Amino acid sequence: MPAGSAGSRPRNRQRWPCRRRSGPRQSAFAGLRIGHSFHDTGDSLVVDLPADLTKTGAPWEAPVPAPVLPLMRGYLSEVRPWLMQRGGEDHDVLWVTDRGRPFDPNFLGMKIGGLTKRLTGVRVPPHLFRDAAATTLVRLSPECAQLIRPLLAHAGFGTAEKHYIHAQGIEAARDYAEAVMRLRRGDKDTGKHKP
To answer: pLDDT, tens digit, for every residue of 70-101?
Structure first.
């Protein structure tokens, strides 16, 4: 890493896409440990949470998505070692501060909220990414509602049902708005499908 560069910028680019696409809770994500809950299998990187790090008490495992692999490999081979050396730290926690210390889970949530505010103008807490993933999944394919429980690592289907209902409400509102617009334009057919 170049001397005098802001070490947090490259690290944030690596951490940001991984968090959006994976299911661990904020505290488990911040506490990932290389060789324990985060593994490099050669072909892929795997998040492997033991039961004591999940809300449901059930183990959770998922590969890091392919589009994120180059970023994560860069973080592991260049950014993290540079940050660790910079701070004189030696530990196995995956996500580190600009001085190589382990991230506090609360700080990570504040950082994600700050990044979303800076990039979009709206502060988005980490938990909303989980909600958005579940709702988007159901909106794209209602038949996939059954995948929400493992995606969010929940024990029951109550949350999956909530996201299914929410997604169906979004679609109903869009259909209604479309029908109103057709009526305003004077279209006789306000239905989605012609007979």
So the answer is: 999 999 999 999 999 999 999 999 999 999 99
3-class DSSP assignment, residue 136: helix
**Domains in the chain: boundaries:** 8-122, 135-185
Per-residue pLDDT band for 110 (boundaries 50, 70, 90) equals: confident
- Which of 101, 126, 98, 104 is CA-nearest to residue 114? 126
The string of pLDDT tens digits covering residues 123-157 is 988 877 777 777 777 677 666 666 665 566 555 55
Which residues have a Cβ under 8 Å from the Cβ of 46 and sit 6 or more positions away?
A: 38, 39, 61, 62, 63, 64
DSSP 8-state assignment for residue 33 = B
* Residue 194: count of CB within 10 angstroms of its CB: 5
What is the rounded CA–CA span in Å between residue 125 and residue 188? 44
Q: Report residue 50 as tokens.
A: 């033991």
pTM over 0.85: no
* Joined tokens for residue 14: 């690596």
In whole angstroms, how far apart are CA 117 and each of 21, 124, 183?
19, 7, 38
Architecture of the domain delimited by 8-122: Orthogonal Bundle (1.10)
**Token couple for 185:** 């334009």
Which tokens in the block code for residue 80? 């993290």
- How many other C-beta atoms lie within 10 A of the C-beta of residue 188? 6
Buried b (16+ CB within 10 A) or exposed e, 75-84: bbeebbebbb
